[in-house]
Design brief:
Shape of chain B: globular
Strand content of chain B: 15-25%
Distance between the termini of chain A: 40 Å
Number of domains of chain A: 2
Largest sheet of chain A: 6 strands, antiparallel
Order of helices and strands of chain B: EEEHH
Radius of gyration of chain A: 23 Å
CATH superfamily of the largest domain in chain A: Galactose-binding domain-like
Shape of chain A: elongated
Number of helices of chain B: 2
Oligomer: heterodimer
Radius of gyration of chain B: 11 Å
Strand order of the largest sheet of chain A: 1-3-4-12-6-9
Distance between the termini of chain B: 18 Å
Amino acid sequence: MTKAAELAKMGEVLTNSQIGGRRNIIINGAMNVRQRNDSVAGLGDGDEGYVTLDRFRHTAAASAGRFTSAQTAISDLPGFLNCLHLDCTTADTSIAATELLVLEHRIEGQDLQQLKKGTSSAESITVSFYMKTNAEFVFMCVLNDFDNNRVNTQKFTTTTDWKRHSITFVGDTTGALGDDANNSLSVSFYLHAGSNFTGGTYVSNTWQSRASSDNMIAPGIGSFYSSTDNDVKLTGVQLEVGSQATPFEHLSFGETLALAQRYCFAIDAAGLAGSDVLASGHCRANNAAYVDLHFPVIMRVKPTSITVNTVGHFGMVTYGVINLACTTVSLQSATRRVASINLVGSTTALTVGFGCFMYHVNDDGLIVFEGAEL
Amino acid sequence: MSEVNWSVLVNDDNLVFIRNLDDGSQQSCLANHIPFQQWLRLNKDNLPNDIQAKIDDGTLTIAEAD
């Protein structure tokens, strides 16, 4: 790049306010926050959703291929210590039309209004990320506008070393994004797809309607499932306004965790001292209690489900009873701020009306509140 | 999505659904949990008796897909 071009680019960056303030619209792009599981194997038999790293969705349609998703420590990319790692464990070389594997990050419309999408002033959007694979692959980076059923696609080629990819998408003067808490736009990485997604014609960096088919989304991509040798590592994901990728914006762990807890909240007893109190309430029967558990941040919507890894690792404490292990830990009701949890114990030792604490018996207890993700 | 069946758990007239998964974990949900509704639609002709009873008496509704 010539000096003049460098100066022009710098001017554009300054004009678009890309320097200063928060630039990265992606949450957990450095792959540091993992509230659910550090590793899940045997994925690929259907839509898998959010299983490991927060905010990164495994959007899939059934395939014979299987993979493991994990948060993996890395030491060969200065500035980053974690990545999202997909490892193919069962190959699938007979690809049915409907097959699909996509890594996806969905964003609320109210967090995207600075893109000015659907106006004559629509901004360019730049997606940057670091990816490393076991061999060279062509994959597709896709912006998917859920509000207006529009899509923009660009291929990229991976390498066996970490490579920072920077992909700029033109602004879209058609289709405004809803100013609300719903899923409006996603950044997606298409890693495997059948002919329903590959049978069309590839048109680079052009906003298109998805009205009739998805077959223009991923023509010409390689397949993550082509061999059990395959693995994909991803980190440093950034989406920002403008046509220039700026350096990755690192946030503190605490900031990222709080941002992620809007969509998923987990109580992970690992590292907590024994008998830490998690919630308080009252005994409703001689073997059961309701306790209220307050969320650290207001969730996007009311959570609708909890998953408890080992119910017996949680227990109740009340007057005269200090160690009643649970046999059921279930969601009773929830608002965006607090959940009522139903605890059922293994014996009839409680007194109705007495106060009651919920605590963890074992430090590998995990409770995950789901239903607020996009 | 796991194929493990849900069952009905009622506390103080509040309808909750619960299942024990193969990995030893326990999941509970409210009726509007999206994956639960997807499971209801997928299995609507072969639901467990206690869940079918809640549909029959009108306390549980299968939502249409988006």
